[in-house]
Amino acid sequence: MTEEFRYENVSHADAFAANLANWEDRVPIHLEQYGLEAFDDPQHRSTVVTQDVPVLERFAGPLRGQSLVHLQCHIGSDTVSLARSGARVTGVDFSASALEAARGLAHRTGADATFVESNVYGAAEAVKAAGVGPADVVYTSIGTIGWLPDLFAWAREIFALLRPGGTFMIRDGHPFALVFDPDAPEPLTPRFHYFAGSQAERWQDSTTYVGDGSQVVEHATTYSWPHPVSEILQAILAAGLKLEHFDEGKELPWELIPTMSKLPNGDYVLPQAYAQSVPLTFTLVAHRPA
């Protein structure tokens, strides 16, 4: 990996501006590298949604006919996959370029999906302004909450987006797995903070997480924030949501350390010596009380 990294004090506004510029730059690269031509097959769904929908439907019931808000939807591959699972989906993202790409994918594939431009912290108001009523389901998955400094405000937005009795689901990288240094000579060497602090993680990296690294972004600075499991759970509970399910997984959709093995579904697993020691993802399901 080629990142330059340090902890830094930064205002949320400045961090969001840097992140937005970076994600705008990523869009044309991701349009080439995401394999979107696979969606020409009307049965195709993203790996993430293929794994998440069975869990979601255990608690929310069949998605067909339900309204679903997909937070941090990026270029819409998961959003279209959710629509193909039967939901009426509204994707939300802060990148205008990503949403333009998402609308193009939805139009090309005939997916029942609309898109709203908004920061996560304004999502409930923006979705309401777009004429979308309280949702039956709110969903977000893989690589999302690390971009957010305040999970308590995030959880309040989720509560506001849901109708009474509605269901929320997230699957994301496990906070414990994210403390390890991918560049260390010994695997599973701790480097990064587990607990949240006053400083953000400042990354300087001109590449993105897909492709061979030959395509680069102009705006290379991004900011992220660590969130321990305790903070995630407390934010959900403090917002008034009721926890229904929490699970930890042994597969990750990206290569956290170079010694991981790739599975046929595209996910990665740790070497057998560590597989029973480190959780790689967490899955949380909660609902807004009726």
TrEMBL record:
Pfam families: Methyltransf_12
CDD domains linked: AdoMet_MTases
Keyword match Transferase: yes
The keyword Amino-acid biosynthesis is assigned to this record: no
GO BP annotation list: methylation
SUPFAM superfamilies noted in UniProt: S-adenosyl-L-methionine-dependent methyltransferases
Name of the protein described by the UniProt record: Class I SAM-dependent methyltransferase
Protein species of origin: Galactobacter caseinivorans
